[in-house]
Amino acid sequence: MLKIDEYKIIRDFIKKKSLLLMDHEKKNHARTGIAINNYRTTEINGKIYYLIPTNLFTAIVDRYLGIASAKYPNQFGTGNANDVIKAIYDLEPWFDLNRFNEILKTEQFCYVVEVKDGVINKKLLRIDLYRDIKENKNGGFDFVGGVFHCYKHFSYEGNPLSTSKEINDIKHPSVLIFKIITAFFQGDVTVVDKFTSYSEVEINNNEKLKLVFYYEQNTEVFFVKTVHRI
């Protein structure tokens, strides 16, 4: 349950980090405040975490991605990130597709923080939907960073969740968010250099993924960068 005193501490903490990111990334604006109704708490292995997602992040991960993968299965696993975005857009095409793409890659994220006895763990994780879409050497388009990059190794009810055809069913797309949180905060994290660290997450009984995190030194925020099957 969200405590009002902890909410105020986290709100101010997130606002400060968001302004630092805006300045570092030379943006004209940044989402510095998230409505209190969006704050969630979750307990993982006895530890409490606060999830602070934007409305659109929640809507897509909790609802639209699963629906789109079932309704438009031919748009997933094509090696083209734009097909995935088009499938989600086609569920409710209420404005221009290009604008929809820009909105999804700009300030659509979930912050995750740990608070214990009123004290914030300074290790702040930001899970974007994705940071960008870029052409790859095969002529397709890849998601850069964020959970959509990670979804390429997962499926839901037998349907791929991103650009790859890999079938590794999870109970719901939102499950991956909790796998990322567990790996980041509770996993055996290996520091590669001052910018990069990684941890492992299990995807089934025999396989694991290596989640790679990017550390932005100026703001002290960690981002989900990439993922590899091991």
Q: What would your notes on this structure say?
A:
With 230 residues, the protein is of the alpha+beta class. It has 6 helices and 13 strands. The strands form 3 sheets. Strands 1, 2, 3, 4, 5, 10, 11, 12 and 13 form a 9-stranded mixed sheet that branches.
Give a quick set of tags describing it:
230 residues; alpha+beta; 9-stranded mixed beta sheet; two-stranded antiparallel sheet; 6 helices; 29% strand; globular
In short:
With 230 residues, the chain is of the alpha+beta class. It is 32% helix and 29% strand.
SS-based structural class?
Answer: alpha+beta
Oligomer: single chain
Number of helices: 6
Measure the end-to-end span: 37 Å
Task: Draw up the topology in text.
Layout: H1 4-24, E1 40-44, E2 47-53, H2 55-71, H3 81-91, H4 97-104, E3 109-116, E4 119-120, E5 124-128, E6 132-135, E7 141-144, H5 146-150, E8 155-156, E9 159-160, H6 175-186, E10 190-191, E11 196-202, E12 208-216, E13 221-229
Helix pairs in contact: 2-3
